[in-house]
Design goal:
It is a single chain. By secondary structure, the protein is α/β, with parallel strands linked by helices. Strand 13 and strand 14 form a beta hairpin. Helices cover about 40% and strands about 20% of the residues.
């Protein structure tokens, strides 16, 4: 099978922080024998090239020095922020459509998949009509924010949703918003993380101090709401909790965040780590006590949909909101069982935390299958280790001026799945 991904953004070089999860998706599809090519926009005059053996066709849409509508920040955000980007959108659409006509010559594809359907559904539809191929749309959410503001974008998306053979979204929330444009069947396929998760990731660790490590990872844009997190640090200090915040990432909103740090005088409580490597990121996830993923609705109506870093943090099982004793009761029912049976037990368990444990087990199974090529049918839960982490202390007023203490414990869980050896 030959598939063409029609996208606005694709990594320009090995190690490029732009959409690494999309590159990982292509790697895995090619590993399963599916031939994938990329049709993407140029960036500052980039020509078609090979990336890890993957053909990447870059279409030009303006003069070299002005070709920056995509990459480094979502095109949707740029278009809403400046009139210059709006002017770039028209040649982007027209020249993208013409480039797709030229691209189809001498090539044959079975599927054209448009990521971020506005305007890429048009390019993919042209390719699908030329080859008699199937048309697939994949929604991430940014194009839906634009559709709520611009009626012609809404009409554009509705027209191609009607024509598409399949439509999918990264979350149930994104799918529900897309259904407001046109009611049809959706597949919900969350995107995963390209970050390698070690089996020791969720293991309990010894504390070297009482200081709690708070982590944020992501692009520094307004809708992330990181400055609100910074402004909350004095409140954390005033509550008597010794905590330190690390902000990993870069973006155009970095200046505002640094101004908030200076304004609140929390330079000793906040570290701006900038962009970090995958190895450094994995280390930060492992060492932090709490991962925080704030989000706001910015003045343009945009908000965070489903962050990849949130998936990465969940894979490390950071802080399940339950006591170790209650979590251990759930862990006991799956220890030593085949993964298939363990998932069934968790699906029908009436304990609240069972759903979170089921998600973690599914993540471990996927990791074993895709990253370590283990046989899913022979996997069993070799270890299920429960550890105690922090306890949030609260209080409530009682009679006669007394105070009742409330303790909210958190736990972490380490799951290890292994392949059961065949017996003679």
């Amino acid at each position: 099978m030959r598939v063409c991904f029609v996208v606005s953004t694709f990594p320009r070089f090995t190690g490029d922080p732009e959409v690494p999860w999309l590159l990982e998706t292509v790697r895995r599809l090619r590993g399963k024998g599916i031939d994938v090519e990329i049709f993407a926009s140029s960036y500052e005059g980039m020509e078609p090239h090979l990336l890890e053996g993957i053909p990447v066709h870059r279409f030009r849409y303006f003069f070299r020095r002005w070709e920056y509508l995509t990459h480094n920040e979502g095109a949707t955000n740029k278009v809403q922020r400046s009139s210059l980007y709006k002017l770039l959108a028209l040649p982007y659409i027209l020249l993208g459509a013409l480039s797709m006509l030229r691209f189809c010559r001498g090539r044959k594809f079975d599927v054209f998949q448009a990521h971020w359907p506005f305007p890429h559904a048009l390019f993919a539809w042209i390719g699908a009509r030329r080859h008699g191929a199937r048309l697939s749309l994949r929604f991430y959410g940014a194009e839906l924010v634009l559709a709520e503001k611009l009626p012609f974008v809404r009409s554009f998306i509705r027209a191609f949703m009607k024509r598409a053979d399949t439509v999918d979204a990264i979350s149930t929330y994104t799918a529900s918003r897309a259904r407001q444009i046109y009611q049809r069947e959706f597949a919900v396929i969350p995107y995963g993380s390209h970050l390698e998760i070690s089996v020791e990731a969720g293991a309990p660790r010894e504390r070297s101090s009482k200081r709690r490590e708070i982590l944020f990872v992501g692009r520094l844009v307004e809708r992330k709401g990181v400055e609100y997190l910074v402004r909350a640090m004095p409140l954390v200090r005033a509550s008597g909790v010794e905590a330190h915040l690390t902000v990993a990432g870069n973006g155009h909103w970095e200046k505002e965040i640094r101004e908030a740090i200076e304004e609140k005088g929390v330079g000793d409580l906040v570290t701006m780590a900038g962009r970090v490597s995958d190895e450094e990121k994995a280390s930060l996830y492992k060492k932090c006590d709490v991962y925080v993923h704030p989000a706001i609705v910015d003045p343009r109506g945009d908000t965070e949909m489903l962050g990849v870093v949130l998936i990465e943090a969940m894979a490390y099982a950071k802080h399940l909101r339950t006591s170790p004793q209650k979590l251990n009761l759930v862990a006991e029912i799956i220890r030593g069982k085949k993964c298939e049976a363990a998932l069934s037990e968790l699906a029908f368990s009436r304990r609240r935390i069972s759903g979170e444990v089921k998600k973690l087990l599914e993540s471990a199974i996927a990791n074993a299958e895709n990253n370590h090529q283990l046989d899913v049918d022979r996997l069993y839960v070799a270890e299920a280790t429960v550890g105690k982490t922090m306890v949030i202390k609260r209080w409530r007023a009682r009679a006669r001026g007394r105070v009742g203490r409330i303790q909210k414990p958190f736990s972490n869980l380490r799951l290890v799945v292994r392949e059961r050896e065949e017996t003679a």
